[in-house]
Amino acid sequence: MRPILFLVALLAMPASALELEGGFSREQLTGGRADWTSAYLEGSHSFAERQTLYGIARRTSRFDLRDTEYLAGYYHPLGARWTALVEGNVSPDHRVLPKHSVLGQVSWQAGGGWVLSPGVRYTEYTASSTRLLIGTVERYGSTFRGAYTIYNGRPEGAGSATAHRLAFEHFYTERSRVGIGLTRGREVENVGPPIGITSTDVRSVNLYGRHWLTPAWALTWEGLRHDQGDIYRRQGFRLGLRHRF
Q1: What CA–CA distance (Å, rounded) separates 226 from 177?
Q2: Integer Cα distance of 204 and 223 in angstroms
Q3: Backbone phi, then psi, for 3, in 5-degree steps?
Q4: For the whole prediction, is pTM greater than 0.85?
Q5: What is the pLDDT of residue 1?
C-alpha cells in the first residue's frame, strides 16, 4: 500500500480515535543557502492505550532540492509495562533525504513515573548509510515531563558521534502542552552539497507546543535555532492545525 493510501485508510477507521494534522515549516540558513521549507499531512489512530498507528506524508525543499517523504509507525503493548515501536520511512527521490530508514524501540515503565526507552535506527542515503543508537530516560510527575536522550550515530566507514538532548514539558490542560528542548554534542547529518553526510558539532534549542482551541481543533507550533558546526545556522518555525474526529 502506498503511504498516501495509508493516510486515506486512517480516515476509514472509527472516528472517535482518529486525529489528522496539516501544516508547514520554514527555516532560514546562513551562508547564502536557500531556505528550508516543508508541507505535511499527518494522521494517527489509537486502537487502545499504548496501541497507535500513525503516518506522515511530507514535501520538503532543502538546499534548492525537492524531496517527498512517507513515514509510518506503530506502537504496540508487549505487556503491562513494555511497549514496542516500529517505524519506517522512504523518500522516492532521496536527493537530500534518506532513501529509507527503519527504527526499532522498546519502552519500559519502571514505576514511580520513570520510563526507559532504548532503540536503534538504520538509515540509508544515496551514497552511504548510518546507524544511530538511542537511549531515553523519562520522568513523569503531576503535570510535567522531563527527559534525557543520548544519541550515538556512526556513518558508514567513519567514527561515531554522540549528542545529548534534554527536554522539559508542561501539560497545562489534559491535552495541551508546551515544551523546550536543548541539544549539544556531535551529530551525523546530510549538510548538503558538496559535503554530504558528515558529523559536526551541534547546538540547538527548540520551543514547541500543542494548544487545543476546542475539543476538536488544536494548533501545533514550534520555533527552533540549530547550529550545524561552522557550516551553517538554521532558524525558523513550524505551524500546524490538528483535528480530532
Answers
A1: 22
A2: 11
A3: -55, -35
A4: yes
A5: 47
